User: Fold this.
Amino acid sequence: MDRRQNNGRRCQIVQEFVKNISDNTERLACFLFMNNYADREVCKLLKIGANTLGMLKLKLAFDLKKAGIQAGA
Assistant:
């Protein structure tokens, strides 16, 4: 039960993080990744290249870490 509450809290933190993203491209990228879209699909939907996506993912990774969210945890 404790784990379930932790996962619920983590989801709440992530939702709050995404809600506070001011850049629409970043917010949409987060939404797509949370819904298991592949990099190639994200590039196509956002009309960006692989290099731009790589920079976007790196920025989001740093922002998530600053917010106290660890990927895959």
Summary: The two ends are 17 Å apart (CA to CA). The chain has one domain: 2-66.
